[in-house]
């Protein structure tokens, strides 16, 4: 039987897109406490099926697919520009395909305004009306209002008319930045993208006899399984080491490792990879907010996804991406790397930031290890000596040297030069992820 938390989530999913919900309303409708209703609504917001908007409330929205994640909903636009909804609240869940700045003649403006777009304009009531008739939403800048007839038309067409106190070009810059941030987020791989679902996973119940482990081992050839209780909540892990030379009639709960590490589908691939290396784990259960088993993710799943990720084109750039793209092998020595210090790499004083400094060292060391065919690394410790400041537009030479490299561990010395002068030095210790 579904828990109260799950019943609330199912109820929210059954509501129409655009339906406004509240803690008190949910508590009354499903006869639960307001605390239980509040926690379920917050979980629904984390899952992307509702959105809480200031001065509007919590609204049921359409769950976005990952391949369409770079598009913003109008509800998200409201949050970005700190705005308010004047009309057409039922259309807040819709996504905008593009935005148009209304700083031109009306006829020219309408040539660019189409269904699914967002017109950013001041207090030009005629433009508001024409945009709605074309199927576009409207964002009014400068804190202006609009006519009641426009608000009524927006309600009828379920297209939001919104207002913000920012000026037109500030709003355009804010939305552009949000879309760019979404592009970067879109590229982040999560456990939910790669794990093996519950219905295709192997697991044991805590009350099972050990004999069940041997049955699963014969079926799957795996040796590690999550252990769940009667409500299918993860309570342990059991491996071949736990069952060695044990009587097959012993209950699994007597031999399992209790309180195992569990991840959720929103956990990033990078975090799981680091944890698996750090803890020496081969398989991790994936659970929901109530700790109920959703599936498993294995070391092989993670390695395969990491390799696939490296082959994908980059759409948005983080600081680490900028560092990686700026680092090139020296022409006369493939084990030496060069980088040019760009404005994005500097601090407020115009010198190379400490974060970028360490990122350059780590990236150079990682590339050298890849050339040795040792695999990728997870940094365990990095001791850096910043000997001299590095100015903007400097050309750096980075020389990593492997001091020790075993099967799972590496120790490296990294030196950074500006011209012929050493400006930085680091000692890097890392664990290796075999490819």
TrEMBL record:
Report the PANTHER family cross-referenced here: CBS DOMAIN-CONTAINING PROTEIN, CBS DOMAIN-CONTAINING PROTEIN CBSX3, MITOCHONDRIAL
Return the Pfam families for the record: 4HBT, CBS, DRTGG, GntR
Name by which UniProt lists this protein: DRTGG domain-containing protein
Domain CBS, which positions?
195-255, 256-314
Q: Does the keyword Transcription regulation apply?
A: yes
Entry-linked InterPro entries: CBS_dom, CBS_dom_sf, Diverse_CBS-Domain, DRTGG, HotDog_dom_sf, Ser_kin/Pase_Hpr-like_N_sf, Thioestr_dom, Tscrpt_reg_HTH_GntR
Organism from which the protein derives? Lentibacillus juripiscarius
Q: Where is the signal peptide?
A: none
Entry keywords, A to Z: CBS domain, DNA-binding, Transcription, Transcription regulation
- Asked if the keyword Thylakoid belongs to this entry, the reply reads no
């Amino acid at each position: 039987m579904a828990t109260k938390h799950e019943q609330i989530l199912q109820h929210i999913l059954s509501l129409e897109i655009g339906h406004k919900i509240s803690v008190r309303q949910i508590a009354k409708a499903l006869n639960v406490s307001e605390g239980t209703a509040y926690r379920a609504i917050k979980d629904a917001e984390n899952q992307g099926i509702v959105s809480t908007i200031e001065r509007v409330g919590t609204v049921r929205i359409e769950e976005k697919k990952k391949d369409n994640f770079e598009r913003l909903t109008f509800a998200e636009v409201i949050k970005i520009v700190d705005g308010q909804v004047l009309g057409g609240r039922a259309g807040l869940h819709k996504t905008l395909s593009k935005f148009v700045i209304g700083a031109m003649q009306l006829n020219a403006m309408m040539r660019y305004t189409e269904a699914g777009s967002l017109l950013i304009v001041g207090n030009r009531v005629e433009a508001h009306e024409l945009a709605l008739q074309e199927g576009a939403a409207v964002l009014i800048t400068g804190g202006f209002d609009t006519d009641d007839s426009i608000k009524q038309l927006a309600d009828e067409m379920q297209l939001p008319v919104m207002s913000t106190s920012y000026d037109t070009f500030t709003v355009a810059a804010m939305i552009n930045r949000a879309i760019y941030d979404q592009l970067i987020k879109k590229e982040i791989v999560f456990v939910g993208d790669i794990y093996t679902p519950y219905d295709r996973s192997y697991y044991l119940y805590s009350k099972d006899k050990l004999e069940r482990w041997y049955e699963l081992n014969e079926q799957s050839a795996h040796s590690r399984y999550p252990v769940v209780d009667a409500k299918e909540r993860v309570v342990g892990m059991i491996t071949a080491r736990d069952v060695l030379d044990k009587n097959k009639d012993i209950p699994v709960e007597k031999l399992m490792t209790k309180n195992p590490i569990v991840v959720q589908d929103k956990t990033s691939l990078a975090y799981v990879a680091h944890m698996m290396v750090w803890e020496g784990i081969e398989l991790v259960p994936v659970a929901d907010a109530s700790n109920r088993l959703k599936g498993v993710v294995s070391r092989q799943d993670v390695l395969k996804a990491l390799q696939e990720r490296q082959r994908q084109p980059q759409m948005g750039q983080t600081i680490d991406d900028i560092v990686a793209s700026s680092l090139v092998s020296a022409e006369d020595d493939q084990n030496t790397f060069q980088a040019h210090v760009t404005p994005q790499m500097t601090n407020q004083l115009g010198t190379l930031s400490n974060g970028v400094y360490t990122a350059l060292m780590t990236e150079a060391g990682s590339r050298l290890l890849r050339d040795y065919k040792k695999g990728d690394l997870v940094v365990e410790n990095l001791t850096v000596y910043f000997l001299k400041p590095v100015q903007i537009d400097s050309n750096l030479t980075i020389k990593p040297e492997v001091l020790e490299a075993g099967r799972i561990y590496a120790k490296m010395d990294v030196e950074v030069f500006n011209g012929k002068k050493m400006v930085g030095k680091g000692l890097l210790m890392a664990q290796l992820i075999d490819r």
